[in-house]
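Following the same procedure, sequence and fold were stored together, as reproduced here:

>
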Amino acid sequence: MSDERAFQQIPSVPSHTSPPDDGITYAQIDRVWFRVVVGDYTGADLRRYAVPSIPVDHDLWRINPLGQRDVKVADDEVIYLRNSGQRFFSTPRFINA
């Protein structure tokens, strides 16, 4: 989804998040919360919508619940943002290189 209005930065997630069927969900990228239009987004979209945007020398990761390993998100990977509270973070691509 390429519409810049799809992601709106918000100070925090409301304690009563909207159900997914209203077309809005919430996601966090690098500790910043966003109100998001439910839909498909690529890793490149998430990088661009982050505030500040995630540079090319960083990797984007999706946090998995229940202690499972976090998963690196490729730029061309499609993520369906539907469930409130999905979280992502970025790290330098090469640490101590």
Notes: The radius of gyration is 13 Å. The chain has one helix and eight strands. Helices lie at 43-49.
